[in-house]
Automatic annotation (TrEMBL):
<keyword id="KW-0630">Potassium</keyword>
<dbReference type="Pfam" id="PF03309">
    <property type="entry name" value="Pan_kinase"/>
</dbReference>
<dbReference type="GO" id="GO:0005524">
    <property type="term" value="F:ATP binding"/>
</dbReference>
<keyword id="KW-0808">Transferase</keyword>
<comment type="pathway">
    <text>Cofactor biosynthesis; coenzyme A biosynthesis; CoA from (R)-pantothenate: step 1/5.</text>
</comment>
<dbReference type="GO" id="GO:0015937">
    <property type="term" value="P:coenzyme A biosynthetic process"/>
</dbReference>
<comment type="function">
    <text>Catalyzes the phosphorylation of pantothenate (Pan), the first step in CoA biosynthesis.</text>
</comment>
<feature type="binding site">
    <location>
        <begin position="104"/>
        <end position="107"/>
    </location>
    <ligand>
        <name>substrate</name>
    </ligand>
</feature>
<keyword id="KW-0173">Coenzyme A biosynthesis</keyword>
<feature type="binding site">
    <location>
        <begin position="7"/>
        <end position="14"/>
    </location>
    <ligand>
        <name>ATP</name>
    </ligand>
</feature>
<feature type="binding site">
    <location>
        <position position="184"/>
    </location>
    <ligand>
        <name>substrate</name>
    </ligand>
</feature>
<keyword id="KW-0547">Nucleotide-binding</keyword>
<dbReference type="GO" id="GO:0005737">
    <property type="term" value="C:cytoplasm"/>
</dbReference>
<keyword id="KW-0418">Kinase</keyword>
<dbReference type="InterPro" id="IPR043129">
    <property type="entry name" value="ATPase_NBD"/>
</dbReference>
<keyword id="KW-0963">Cytoplasm</keyword>
<feature type="binding site">
    <location>
        <position position="97"/>
    </location>
    <ligand>
        <name>substrate</name>
    </ligand>
</feature>
Amino acid sequence: MTFLALDIGNTRLKWAVYDDARPGSSLLAHGAEFLEQIERLAEGPWANLMRPGRMLGCTVAADAVRRRAEAQMEELWDLPAQWVYASAGEAGLSNGYDHPARLGADRWVAMIGARHRMLARGPQRPMVVVMVGTAVTVEAVDAAGRFLGGFILPGHGIMLRALESGTAGLHVPTGDVREFPTNTSDALTSGGTFAIAGAVDRMARHVREHCGAEPVVYMTGGAGWKMAPHMTLPCELVDSLIFDGLLEVAQLRFAA
């Protein structure tokens, strides 16, 4: 029974099909579409897929976007949609947010994926979980699996567009990351990169002081590959972190 996992972000819908709804399942197919092109899924990338037996997703997009994705699944497979939302606790993670349900589903699922990845490799450790996309989130999780809190800051594109709109004569660059930038394009690209890296370093320091142990740092998201080479802390880049979390949740929900 194949399993369809969906991650609907602020810019793209990412999807993956596995041979089962459990961790360690084989990836059969995957892809991504910009939100403006969701309607082409049924007649395009999904047209030749076998009907999934189960589906589970997370979304931070507007309800209208979620309904468009559901319509594609209904049109093609008559497949009921199920979604993960943040709660007080699930899959070994407890939620320390002031209002747990208001935590972004993608953040919640990525932390679940990161925790189980860490546990599969050894003893419990605190974590810092970083998602680099349209926005950047930097999460702290203690060794017992409690989400302590997290930062939200603009991604590269938002930072650069904000500077362009608020500063006369400044245009979004295609610069490089330099230790000592000597032109405006490199200065802007380097500034955004090191701002994100600095937020991760600060969160790691908070976790280290709070937990009395060195955190493991995981990074994911569409722009994670741009950030990872510029991190000062050891950092593992895991493209599939949200899908890993969805597989963990799916195993528990569908086994019940």
